[in-house]
Design brief:
The chain is of the alpha+beta class. It has 17 helices and 23 strands. It starts with a strand and ends with a helix. Bound molecules: guanosine-5'-monophosphate (5GP), iron/sulfur cluster and magnesium ion.
Length: 471
């Protein structure tokens, strides 16, 4: 998972991009990068670390020009090194072009092999670089045409921002796995993985880029292309709603907060249990816990307090550090928990290691009973569309039943939201603005990590090699 942001036609393009990336920081903490264009030349600066660490005032000041794209990258199983940081920028026969990518191409390994046999030299191990090589080889005269030609050869999930000297192109794959939206600020166009970045810079939200759409912005304004003549079925990532996106974002036409609260309400209806308090695992479990408390009538309380000076613990690659990380991040409040029957709500359960630590912590602080409630179904399958979930063997629900997991986690009961419940909760939140679309509940989403039904097929054996180039 990554975050992308772009500005076209604003004197402070790099500053706005820096702010936009700050708002998207939750989508990637490993590296940050910005490419600017002054109309003649592109310049790229990429650094490891958080946005605030990567760019200081002097560096930002030196990034001059009215056009910019930026990227924050998520730590993955693949190489976490500077060559894999984005945007990627290349010079080729038609000038220079930069790309920022959120998603994952599932045929990147094959394409890369083919390109390398043909003489291409890669600078990174990232799948995103493949797109630039394909683009550079395309015969079309104009950049949007070259992009379309490249994208017709790749399969998988992508939301992309391209920047040339004087043109920006935003693209979403035909299934629309990953989000991307368009905004406006003082005559300039802005693009962002999530609308929350527009709130920060005071931009007006216009709309989302449609699945399979190429949005081109240049001196003539904004226009869109639809290179795919046969549309694919929409497959927006339901896990963006469950966990990834910030709750104050709007995506898929809906408020992410409203969806999470609905997930919690639905969870309370599916899995009630007598208790004294409902507590969230902060921050990601908060809206669902509020929904659970409202629906069940059990009072909401903050039984766990989170330190805001540590990032998401999941991103620590070393097992030992990750375990320690839970304590670094969360502490239990005895005042709230002592002698209580506690319902603890979290958005998802992946390995179960965090959950186990949390249950221990709650009991040590006096909780009499601990009932875990998860506002999504069991995570049984890895994601190949841009989210770095562990391999199957590390996903506890791929080999254990909820009752077995409850024993491992040492809670009194553990219940997950059903797949139907999850999809109904998403559908319950009316797309705003506009009328509720008439469609079959739960259609139009990817839910492969919960069901194993992958919308884009990949060749057997590709799975393991995919891990290495996943972006
Ligand atoms: P577990 O109990 O499986 O060790 O951890 C579950 C926690 O990890 C949940 O609080 C959930 O919010 C979080 N989580 C789920 N998926 C991801 C992910 O892909 N990245 C990160 N950073 N956290 C995740
Ligand atoms: Fe999202 Fe899961 Fe599909 Fe990946 S597999 S795109 S995380 S729903
Ligand atoms: Mg969490």
């Amino acid at each position: 998972m990554c975050g992308i942001f772009g500005v076209f036609g604003h004197p402070e393009a790099a500053n706005l991009t820096y702010l936009g990336l700050h708002a998207l920081q939750h989508r990637g903490q490993e590296s940050a990068g910005i490419t600017v264009s002054d109309g003649d030349r592109l310049r790229t600066e990429r650094r490891m670390g958080l946005v605030g660490e990567a760019f200081d005032r002097a560096l930002l000041r030196s990034l001059r020009g009215p056009y910019a794209v930026g990227h924050v990258r998520y730590s993955t199983a693949g190489d976490s090194s500077l060559p894999n940081a984005q945007p990627f920028c290349v010079e080729y026969a038609h000038g220079a072009v930069a790309v920022a990518h959120n998603g994952n191409l599932i045929n990147a390994v094959d394409l890369r092999k083919r390109l390398e046999l043909d003489g291409a030299i890669f600078q990174s191990t990232s799948d995103s670089e493949v797109i630039l090589h394909l683009l550079a080889r395309a015969r079309e005269l104009e950049l949007p045409g070259r992009i379309a030609s490249a994208l017709k050869q790749v399969e998988g999930a992508y939301s992309l921002l391209f920047l040339s000297e004087n043109q920006m192109v935003a693209a979403r794959d035909p299934r629309g796995f990953r989000p991307l939206c368009i905004g406006r600020i003082k005559g300039a166009f802005v693009f962002s993985s999530e609308s929350v970045a527009f709130d920060l810079i005071g931009a007006e939200f216009i709309r989302e880029v449609e699945p399979g759409e190429l949005v081109v912005v240049d001196g003539k304004g904004l226009h869109s292309l639809h290179p795919w003549t046969v549309p694919e079925e929409r497959r927006f990532c339901v896990f963006e709603h469950v966990y990834f996106a910030r709750p104050d974002s709007f995506m898929d036409g809906r408020s992410v907060y409203a969806v999470r609260e609905a997930l919690g309400r639905r969870l309370a209806r599916e899995h009630p249990v007598p208790a004294d308090i409902v507590i969230p695992v902060p921050d990601s479990g908060v809206p669902a816990a509020i929904g659970y408390a409202r629906e069940s009538g059990v009072p909401f309380a903050m039984g766990l307090v989170r330190s805001h000076y540590v990032g998401r613990t999941f991103i620590e690659p070393e097992e030992s550090i990750r375990h320690f990380g839970v304590k670094l991040k969360l502490n239990a409040v005895r005042q709230v928990l002592d002698g209580k029957r506690v319902i603890v709500v979290d958005d998802s359960l992946v390995r179960g290691t965090t959950a186990r630590k949390i249950v221990k912590m709650l009991r040590a602080a006096g909780a009499r009973e601990v009932h875990m409630r998860i506002s999504s179904p069991p995570t049984t399958h890895p994601c190949f569309y841009g989210i770095d979930t562990p391999t199957r063997s590390e996903l506890i629900a791929s080999s254990h039943t909820p009752d077995e997991i409850a024993r491992y986690v040492t809670c009194n009961t553990l219940k997950y939201l059903s797949r139907e419940g999850m999809m109904e909760a998403v559908d319950e939140v009316t797309p705003d603005p506009g009328p509720k679309r008439l469609r079959v509940i739960g259609q139009g989403y990817c839910d492969a990590c919960f069901t194993g039904r992958y919308p884009v097929e990949f060749a057997p054996g590709e799975m393991s090699s995919l891990r290495r180039v996943i972006n």
